[in-house]
Amino acid sequence: MDKIKKILVVDDEKDILDLMTRMLSKDGYDILTAESGHQAEVVLKDHQEIGLVLSDIKMPDGNGIELLDGIKKEDPKKPFVVIFTGFYDFSIEDLFDKGACAVVMKPFDWKTIKDILTEQLRPFPKFKKPHMEYANMALAIETSFKSLKEAVKDNKGFKIGRGGLFLRTNKELKEKDLVRFKFTFNEGEPKTFEGIAEVAWQRLEDSKELPAGIGAKFINLTEETETFVMNYTNDNNIISYIPKA
Fold first, then answer.
1. Has residue 145 got a pLDDT over 50?
2. Across the chain, what does the average pLDDT equal?
3. Tally of domains within the chain
4. Residue 168 in contact with residue 181, Cβ under 8 Å?
5. DSSP characters over the chain
6. For position 97, which CATH number holds?
7. Are 45 and 100 within one domain?
8. Residue 217: CB atoms within 10 Å
9. Same domain, 139 and 179
């Protein structure tokens, strides 16, 4: 690791804070801790250089959802927030829509945590993993629109988040299935929006509020597409990591 990455771990269980501090420090991370959401807010104000927050949901004196909302309201770009929990009070699609970059269920394994940290703290280009084998795709979508504005309007095609997209489809898929997409536009920028994403969740049927589709995490984008995602989400102040629609 070229530069020490500062991480804030938030949990009301001291044993978990101690364990995470020991384990993550071994990998070269600089670890700060807090025992509640409100305490975490103070730490974040004092340490603007924190790059990622690992937070439990259920805590006294400010829970993880309130903390996530506060962080993303302050600045959607950083720090990244990983939510870990043993409860199902909140859907995964809601947590991604609120801006969490990953959701980890307890009990978690260290490889999962370490992989997430490596992925989220990777510098640009961020979405460059070796998953270009088209034969492994569970779904491939290639279509054209008049413009990006038309594609995202009223959920006609997809919605872009900071780390993934909502994609309309009725095909039944599994978590971690790979999806290849290529959208071309006749007007405006970008000319193409292309890459591979990994299914994080699926909604199989339309409801009055939300259409059927998948939430998928970007894992491999063309350079043009990745640059566009970064600029588009910043310019539009987008909070969602993966939009729910």
1. yes
2. 91
3. 2
4. no
5. --SPPEEEEE-S-HHHHHHHHHHHHHTT-EEEEESSHHHHHHHHHH-TT--EEEEES--SSS-HHHHHHHHHHH-TTSSEEEEEES--SS-HHHHHHTT-SEEEESSP-HHHHHHHHHHHTPPSS-SB-S---GGG-SEEEEEEES-HHHHHGGGSSEEE-SSEEEE---S---TT-EEEEEEEESSSS-SEEEEEEEEEEEE-S--SS--SEEEEEEEEE-HHHHHHHHHHHHHTT---SS---
6. 3.40.50.2300
7. yes
8. 21
9. yes
Residues 224, 169 share a domain: yes
Q: Convert the pLDDT of each residue in 182-238 to its tens digit.
A: 999 999 999 999 999 999 999 999 888 889 999 999 999 999 999 999 999 999 999
Query: What are the pLDDT digits (tens) for 68-94?
Result: 999 999 999 989 999 988 766 788 999
Whether residue 106 sits in one domain with residue 161: no
Q: At 182, which CATH number? A: 2.40.10.220
Residue 142: beta bridge partners? 182
- Residue-number span of the structural domain to which 195 is assigned: 134-235
What pLDDT does residue 130 have?
A: 62
- Residue 225: both structure tokens together: 């597409």
Q: Quick check: 3 pLDDT over 70?
A: no
| Global pTM exceeds 0.90 | yes
Per the CB < 8 A criterion, the answer to whether 144 and 180 are in contact is: no
Residue type, 10: V
